Amino acid sequence: MAVQNQLASTLRLVLSDGIDADSGKPVYRSKSFSNIKVSSDATQLFNVAEQLASLQTLPLDAIERRDTSEISEA
C-alpha cells in the first residue's frame, strides 16, 4: 500500500493582461507565492489571494493552489 506525504504548497495568482493583438486570445501573467502552509484550507488561501490581488495592477482572473507530494510505500 502506498502513502502520500504532502511536502509543499504554492499559491498562484493568474492575472489578466488584456488581449493579444495578433491572435485575439487573452494574455495572462502569474504571480506565485511559495512556502504556503500545507495545512491551509481553501477559504484561508482564497482570502489571502484576494488581499494580494488588491495590491496588483492587473485584474485577478484565477486563484490556483499547487501541491507537491511524495508517494512512498507504507
Helix proportion range = 10-25%
Oligomer: single chain
Q: What is the typical, i.e. mean, pLDDT?
A: 96
Secondary-structure element series: EEHE
Number of strands: 3
Overall geometry comes to elongated
Biggest sheet: strand arrangement: 2-1-3
- State the major sheet: 3 strands, antiparallel
- Overall radius of gyration: 16 Å
Number of helices: 1
The CA-CA distance between the termini, in Å, is 6 Å
Which structural class fits the helix and strand makeup? alpha+beta
Can you tell me about this structure?
With 74 residues, this protein is α+β, with helices and mostly antiparallel strands. It has one helix at 42-53, and strands at 2-19, 26-36, 60-73. The chain has one helix and three strands, in the order ββαβ. A three-stranded antiparallel beta sheet has the order 2-1-3, with helices on one face. A hairpin with a 6-residue loop joins strand 1 (2-19) and strand 2 (26-36). The mean pLDDT is 96.
Secondary structure layout plus pairing:
Layout: E1 2-19, E2 26-36, H1 42-53, E3 60-73
Antiparallel strand pairs: 1-2, 1-3
Keywords:
74 residues, elongated, alpha+beta, 1 helix
Write a brief caption for the model.
This protein has one helix spanning 42-53; strands at 2-19, 26-36, 60-73. The protein has 74 residues and is of the alpha+beta class.
